[in-house]
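CO-FOLDING WORKSHEET

Operator: S.A.
Ligand of interest: 3IX
Run index: 218
Mode: holo prediction, single chain
Checklist:
[x] sequence pasted
[x] SMILES validated
[ ] output reviewed
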Amino acid sequence: MTADVSPDTSGTRGAERPKLTAPPNNEGVDAAVAAARRVVASLLHAGDNSPAEMAEVATKLNAVADYLDEHAPAMEERMVDMWAGEGVTRHDPVAGPENTIAPPLPLAGSEDGSIQGVATLGMPYQGPPGYVHGGISALLLDHTLGVANHWSGPSGMTAELTLRYHRPTPLFEPLTVSGRQVSVDGRKIRTIGDITAGGECCVSAEGLFVTQHPPRPR
Ligand SMILES: CCCCC/C=C\C/C=C\C/C=C\C/C=C\CCCC(=O)SCCNC(=O)CCNC(=O)[C@H](O)C(C)(C)COP(=O)(O)OP(=O)(O)OC[C@H]1O[C@@H](n2cnc3c(N)ncnc32)[C@H](O)[C@@H]1OP(=O)(O)O
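OUTPUT RECEIVED:
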């Protein structure tokens, strides 16, 4: 049986609603991640520098990475820690404030059951000239639909994701990414979403998710 998902506006569930964006919890980490994001973007502008100049940059960056590795717990320990709380919001590749490859896209839920976030993407996410890579749009939508499920009801793993690219998605402009769970049928969850720029739909998505949660590391 398919249940249409209608928003819970009773107010009783409000207090238990999950946080969809991790609040800052360590200004040093946030500053380091912001610096690393700058490095990723700056490297894309530095292609004409000489091999000697860039070799010097590589030495400096490797020194930073060596320092971080020397002061980090083992991977197994870090995984346990990562998944100890709500889990996905600090390290995930879309909204995670600790993940340098995340744009980031902070997501917030609305009382109508939908969720939204705004991000402006730069060079690291380029596909066609001046536009977002289609795979990056798929990443943003897969994640947003998954989090919309977490917001509304049962969540799960993506089984199928269908995208329609209506028009090129611009770089360097605010993009609004939205998602909403539409139905739950046993373990099967159907969720929709889109990416808009200046009010125009660039990409729309329909996802089938299946209730399944891989065990958390412990
Ligand atoms: C990362 C998400 C989970 C972690 C969540 C953790 C905490 C929650 C907290 C917050 C949530 C917040 C954020 C989540 C964020 C992002 C979401 C990212 C999502 C992902 O990045 S996730 C990675 C990519 N994803 C995979 O890596 C899946 C690989 N895959 C499998 O693990 C299995 O394949 C599985 C589990 C999908 C199903 O396997 P299964 O054995 O459990 O179930 P089964 O096959 O019996 O299917 C049951 C019914 O679904 C139908 N069905 C299945 N697949 C279908 C398809 N493709 N098309 C049409 N129908 C399909 C069948 O036909 C049957 O239908 P019926 O009952 O009517 O016969």
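REVIEW:
The first strand starts at residue 2 and ends at 4.
Residues 51-70 form the longest helix (20 residues).
[x] output reviewed
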